[in-house]
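From the shared-data thread, chain only:
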Amino acid sequence: HIELEIQGHSDDVGDDAYNLELSKRRAAAVKAYFVGEGVADDRLSTEGYGETQPEVENNSRANRARNRRVVFRLR
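Structure, as tokens:
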């Protein structure tokens, strides 16, 4: 069966520690949704990366929005 890691990310606005926690909560919320829809809990893991892995530079409102995201990786 397929197993997924749900990765949470944030932009660079605010404190590093806050953004790390925010990204963890973001990933956990997505996991909770999938579990609520019937996906087995043990098939999903979560990780928060805060602002450490931006998709694009945090130099505009649009780019910061792109960096606030969740990514799915097969395990």
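Helices lie at 16-36, 61-67.
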